[in-house]
Amino acid sequence: MRIFACSDLHVDHQPNWKWIQDLEPGSHTEEALIVAGDISTDLTQLTRCLQHLTGVFSHVFYCPGNHEMWLNTTEGFNTSVEKFDRILGICAQLGVQTEAQRLDDVWVVPLFSWYDDSLIGADDVINRKVLGDCWVDYHLCKFPESVASPAKYFADRNSYAVRGDYDAPVVSFSHMMPRRDLMVPQCFLHFTDLPAVAGTHLLEEQIRTIGSQVHVFGHTHMNHVAFLDNCLYVQNSFGYPRERERTGRKPCFRPVWPLNENAC
Predict the structure, then answer these.
(1) Percentage helix, strand, coil for the chain under 3-state DSSP, each rounded to 5
(2) What CA–CA distances, in Å, run from 17 to 13, 23, 67, 88, 225?
(3) CATH number of domain containing 11
(4) pLDDT tens digits for 190-216?
(5) Which residue range(s) make up the domain with 120?
(6) Is the pLDDT of residue 264 over 60?
(7) Helices marked H in the chain
C-alpha cells in the first residue's frame, strides 16, 4: 500500500483549506495518508478537514500538533489535555487512526509529542524573555498541575506502541522534531529561539526502540528529507500561504512508502 505524508495543513488559512477541498473523493483509493499535526486550532474546522480526507484516502492517520492544543473561551475545555482527548474521540468517530496499525506489509505508528529543552544545541543561545513573550503556546495552552513535563507526558502515552517486536517495517510519525540535526544551525533560523520549542529527544529514543525505517514529522515548517542512522526522516509541511509565496513551494502529499518511491 502506498503511504503519503503531510503536516501543518493550517486549514484556518483559506488557500490551504481550498487545496484540501479540491481533492476529489475516492481519488486515492487503496492509499493511506499521514497527517503529522497542526490542522486547525478550531475543532469544527479540524473535523471538517479530517472528514473530507477520509473520503479521499482509504486510511488516514493523524496526531494532534501544538496548534490543536490552543484553548479559547468558546470550546469550554479546562486544559489542553482535555482538548487533546476530545480530538482523539472525534478521530475515533470519523475512522481516523491515532494508534498503531498494520497496513499490508507495513506498520504505521503515531507518536504523540511535545517539546522540551533537549534539542537545544551546545552552540544555541536562547532568549527566554523574547520566547516567553512571543511563543503563543505559552499563552494559549494550559496543562494540568499533574503534568510537570508535557514532553514526558505525551511520550508516556506512547508506551503501548514503543516496542521492538514489530513483525513488519515501521513508518512512524510525530508532530514534533525528534533530533537537533534535522534543523539548520541557529544562525540560519528566522526564529532563532526555535530549538527550545522544536521537539524532544524522547521521540528519537522511541524511534530507535521501534526501529522505524521512516519517520515523518512537522512543526518547524522547514521541509526536509534526511537519512540518519538507518531511518529516513521526512517533513512535508504545507505551512502558511505567506511562507509558500516566499519560497515558491506548492502544497503536495509526499510519498513515503514504499521507500523506493521516495527520492532522498
Answers:
(1) 35, 20, 45
(2) 6, 10, 16, 21, 25
(3) 3.60.21
(4) 999 999 999 999 999 999 999 999 999
(5) 2-261
(6) no
(7) 14-21, 43-56, 80-94, 128-134, 137-140, 150-156, 201-210, 241-247
